Amino acid sequence: VQLQASGGGLVQAGGSLRLSCAASGRTFSSFTMGWFRQAPGKEREFVAAITRSGGSEYYSDSVKTRSTISRDNAKNTVYLQMDSLKPEDTAVYYCAATTYVLRDYDTQNAYTSWGQGTQVTVSS
Question: Counting Cβ atoms within 10 Å, is residue 17 exposed (0-12), middle (13-18) or buried (19+)?
């Protein structure tokens, strides 16, 4: 599956952004989808994941009260709504996909397809 992330940009602290990730190439509903991010000088980290049907969502502790992951299988798109953004949310955000049945949704190696990333910059 090919993934194309979009929606990043420059926003002030306290603001909101909605990231989108469009998928093509295979049946979107067969994929568990995740969002990861990588800040400058840091390792890539898990942000959120959503199961194939959208019935379950998973979040990192750092974003779980401020973010919502969702998907529209008819549009082959997964979204990440981020609110109350903080400067520490500044990073390149990547969407990822896997057909594996996961026990740990934050395990990067379990995701087999990755998008190119979209930059989110939060100014203080």
Answer: buried
Reported as a single tens digit per residue, the pLDDT across 57-116 is 999 999 999 999 999 999 999 999 999 999 999 999 999 999 988 888 999 999 999 999
Q: How many helices (H) and strands (E) does the chain have?
A: 0, 11
Q: In angstroms, how far apart are the furthest CA atoms of the chain?
A: 40
Calpha distance 80→88 (Å, rounded): 17
Contact 61/74 with Cβ under 8 angstroms?
no
Q: What is the pLDDT of residue 61?
A: 97
